[in-house]
Amino acid sequence: MDLLEKKKQELHDRGITCRIAGVASRRMGWQANPNGLNPADIAAQVSSAVSSVPPVSPVVRPFPKVKTWLAAAQADVLFEATSLNVESGQPAVDHIRAALEHGVHAITANKGPIVHAYRELRDLAAKQGKKFLFESTVMDGVPIFSFFDQLPAVHLQGFHGILNSTTNVILSQMEHGLSFDEALKKAQELGVAETDATHDIDGWDAAVKTAALVTVLMDVPIRLDQIARDGIRDLTPQAVRNAKRDGWPFKLVCRAKRVGKEVHASVAPEKVRVGEPMARISGTSSYVYFETDLFPGLAITEENPGLYATAYGLFADFLRAVS
Questions:
Q1: 209 an active-site residue?
Q2: Residue 91, preceding bond cis, omega within 30 degrees?
Q3: Angstrom distance (rounded) from CA 305 to CA 283
Q4: Which of 175, 218, 223, 267 is surrounded by the fewest CB atoms within 10 Å?
């Protein structure tokens, strides 16, 4: 929302005008006004909700179904940003399906729908003549998925990389002498780790991102239970520091390789030789290296993304949808 306001002039220059016609969250409820909601009022309500102080004169209407809310808002685009549900991708899958059925472009930062319902939602979007976009699901706003749109007839054979910033921060801090718990606290203070960082520590977030890349870019549906997964929970500070000292630092590495009609994928801590590009990825940075049938190697590095990185992915998808 803030980025839309900051980029209002650039949107205008592109002939695009927009207004926020609806907002929905667990704390704020369902709000809709086809004439537009005031961004400042929404920001105040968000602040009040986060601080657990009831907002002043909230205008919240009960919409028992997403479709009812969409109809009331009369929106053209839905931004879906619910939390990741590893097991089913819900409720994001239902939200996106409802938007597309309603004739609305659907943009998400949630990886779950890509893993659990990508083909269904992709085909539904095509049938409805609408866009289903998800650039922010992997490496924030870096154009991973749209990058391959610019490479027609290039086939991805495999990839490897570092896609989870929380574990990367934890390992970097442990290399500098912190205990596991101290390193996790540092990652939480930086805002890259949730209060419950289980999905990151145990490799689930990295596995979901790996599955998303395999499903979309390699066009091979893969279940999470088909990805060999191991997190960093069992790495001791001493082992991490020794590996760094010996020139083979630990990284949580995602890998995928096409083998016949299948794709073999894994997420696990690996010792990486200090001269390799992955060894230089520290802090909140990310890295992915693609192997294709025409290009032996294509690498993308994201260096310590800022506050607007993920928001930019949503914003860029918005431009792709409405331009």
A1: yes
A2: yes
A3: 10
A4: 223
CB contact burial 46-73 (16+ within 10 A = b; e otherwise): bebbeeeeebeeeeeeebeebeebbebb
- Catalytic one among 111, 209, 244, 251? 209
Concatenate the DSSP letters of all residues of 211-276 into one string: HHHHHHHS-----GGGEEE--STT--HHHHHHHHHTT--EEEEEEEEEETTEEEEEEEEEE--TTS
The string of pLDDT tens digits covering residues 53-96 is 444 444 445 566 888 999 999 999 999 999 999 999 999 999 99
Residue 159 near residue 287, CB atoms below 8 Å:
no
Note whether 32 and 63 are within 8 A (CB).
yes
Question: Hey, is 304 helix, strand or coil?
Answer: coil
Is the whole model's pTM more than 0.85, yes or no? yes
State the burial class of residue 174 (Cβ atoms within 10 Å of its Cβ: 0-12, 13-18, 19+). buried
Per the structure block, which two tokens stand in for 149?
Answer: 């749109």
Q: Which two tokens stand for residue 230?
A: 């191991």
